[in-house]
Amino acid sequence: MRNPMRSQITSPRTRVSQVLRKPSFAGLALMLAAGSLLLTGRVTERDLGAASGTALLRPTGAPQLISQSPLPTMDGQICEWMPASASTTLAASLWQEPAASRSAADAVQRVNADREPIRSINDTYPTYSAIAVDTTNNEVYLQDENLFGLKVFNRLDNTPATAAFTEPKRSIGGIQTKLEFNCGLYVDQKTGDVYSVNNDTVDTMVIFSRNAEGNVPPMRELSTPHGTFGIAVDEVNQELFLTVEHDNAVVVYRKMAQGEETPLRLLQGDQTQLADPHGIVVDTRNGLMFVANHGSTHLVRGEHEKPNWPLDRDRMVRGSGKLLPPSITVYPIKAQGDIAPVRVIQGPLTQLNWPSNMAIDEERGEIYVANDPDHSVLVFKTTDQGNAAPTRVIKGPKTGIKNPTGVFVDLKNNELWVSNMGNHSATVFPRTANGDVAPLRTIRSAPLGKQALMIGNPGAIDYDSKRDEILVPN
Amino acid sequence: MAKTNEPPTRVVAGQKTLLARTMHDIRYDEVNDEFLVTNQFGQALLTFRGDADGEAQPIRVINGPKTQLQRPDRLDVDNVHNEIFVPDIDRILVYPRTGNGDVAPIRMIHGPDTGLDTATLAVDPINNVIVSSVGKQLLIFNRTDEGNVKPRAIIGGPKTEITRINQIHMYPPKGLIIAAQPGGAGIEPKAPVFIGIWRIHDKGDVAPRWKLGGPKSGLKKPRGVALNPKHKELIVADMRLNTVLTFYFPEIF
After folding, report:
1. DSSP letter, residue B185
2. Could you tell me if residue B134 is inside a domain?
3. Could you give the number of structural domains in chain A?
4. Selection from B232, B235, B18 nearest residue A10 by Cα
5. Which pTM does this prediction carry?
6. What ipTM was assigned to the predicted interfaces of this complex?
């Protein structure tokens, strides 16, 4: 770590090494005076140079230049003289340095600065957002949202505690695959086709054949609305359902839709109670659709760009935003337009907390919910409504569940799979597991106990000067 | 001094935070030790204590019909004049920093002369300018501008190499505009990818005074940029890499 009290100033001619002392209380007055010069805007760099020189002669308490020595010339960097009293924090520097002027500094040359970073903060291991099992071929597909790919494992793989990770039997990833922030996953149990939903940055759903491997183009693509997240397929009616997070909508396509094909149906509007929808499952036996909502919502108005295409963010009604509790909303499977849910699961007893992807057991009438920041999986009856407590909750230190965002119910082998974004793993439990129970098996892609960084689609950043921390929204 | 594979020191997440899981801006207010985040889906501005951790609730929430918020993707905070600035498509909305609840904007830059169609901005409270971006341009307004005003300057043209700008940060002591250009949409951006640094007095078709980018930098899709004056570092959030990169950049401080 660089010493924050030691700085170097460079110019085409010289580099000056400064050693700065800590400020004392007496320095405050001088800082305020410099601040008034700054605010009047009548200060010049020469004035500041003189002021700084004077400051050297007094016990100002501010950082002071006590020695300097010439250093070799360094190419490509620009000289900007700074007073010795310059602070090392932005807030303090606002008081001490001149407001930007149009002086000589405006005449500096333009510099292309291609340089290596001194630090990188990233996660070199996969983090798994969604999961699906090919029960025909006994393979597990894990959606890697960190390194943008799909990893395929044998269903019975189990990483020993002493092993660093389990090697996947094959991987799909790379520019050609168009996988990026891939968050929803479906595997066709008959054909082995793999459907991958991208969120936020790539408005394309990609479909791969079962044997796809490496950096290969998808065998089929479908242009989708921006911000899709969850996927469900009605195999009886050959229809494909996608949630649209950004638009509070569900779009329904033909299962084999591709290219620019438009949706068959759209569910969106004031009555739907869709609110930042994520996971989705369909109950073909009872003709129902279940959607997990985080709770943020707004109204939309306007004309549709094309048939059954959601009204997007540009059509938000100003000031209509609401921050609602999380919910699972239930609709007829053929619901379209602006219709109210037939039931809503919502309230403190539900324990819902950013409910993510879901899975359904139609036979037993149960819904499984990946309950991300609660580090739990919740199980509800498909008939639940209102402020209903889950019938089972898998949660606790023995489970190995951390930030689960994907679940899959393997009805053939009577198992429940969970993908954990928080610790690079997938854990598998007996289907009826409840409480703080150890998994039957774990597929781990990083050393045991290695916590995921969970940096995901960082669109901004800031620096917390008080704590010397970097703030990253995801 | 976090590095590769080092987990975060704190994670603010969960239902009580009122955050959406898709966030596009964050601003630390070092004077008041708070940080601000937008929730674009719920049309809300959330302010947290600087030390917020876990499922912390925001200490203030600006949300409701009076706010006129439509698509608050990004924001910035002026801790000198105690105001929050929000770029919102065809307007810039200004709120009191301590506003809470259904608060109307105290000022708005809006109208055909503004040329606004934006989702990003930054404010320099010392030199009294707002810098926003529209398409291939940076638009510079006076901090106190209101109504249907023209930008006081526009930076744009082939020499700027601007194609679209995401996060912008200001460095008031030097009057610098630091802007992240992630390139075009899609997985493999074709347009130039860089962090561009201009001065607030630049205008017209001028190249950035400093441009950080190229093979050594490793940048693929930089969407966020911030400054660490303490260590004279420029911090970049790269979306394609899912990585935060820190560059030693003393010449701009």
Report:
1. S
2. no
3. 2
4. B232
5. 0.86
6. 0.97
